[in-house]
Amino acid sequence: MSTETYIPGQKLTAEQVEAWAVKYDTTSKLPSPKIPCSSGNGVETTMFGDNLHKRVAKFGGIRNLLLNFKSRGARQTEKVQTLLAKVGAKSSSVALVVPESDVDCTGGNAYEE
Is 82 inside a domain boundary? Predict the structure, then answer.
């Protein structure tokens, strides 16, 4: 595969990142206005003009942007998985305590008379 050829929906290879960085350094533009998510989920985000330049500054360079950019969906999925892991860890350490007076072993409701 050529360094210039980009297949939509796939992560950039190291050679492609380098080719895109060289193109950006010389023209201040990328070969494609869509930047693929580095998580490999196939999502592409459109960046050009001021948006692209601000993102490059935010990430500390075009190479960092191309290698570390995560789409909004990937960031939210990561956040949800982190929260679920925290909740799972907490729920496994917490025991449910039911007072014995509320337990009815006959299958009925303990509060019925």
Answer: no
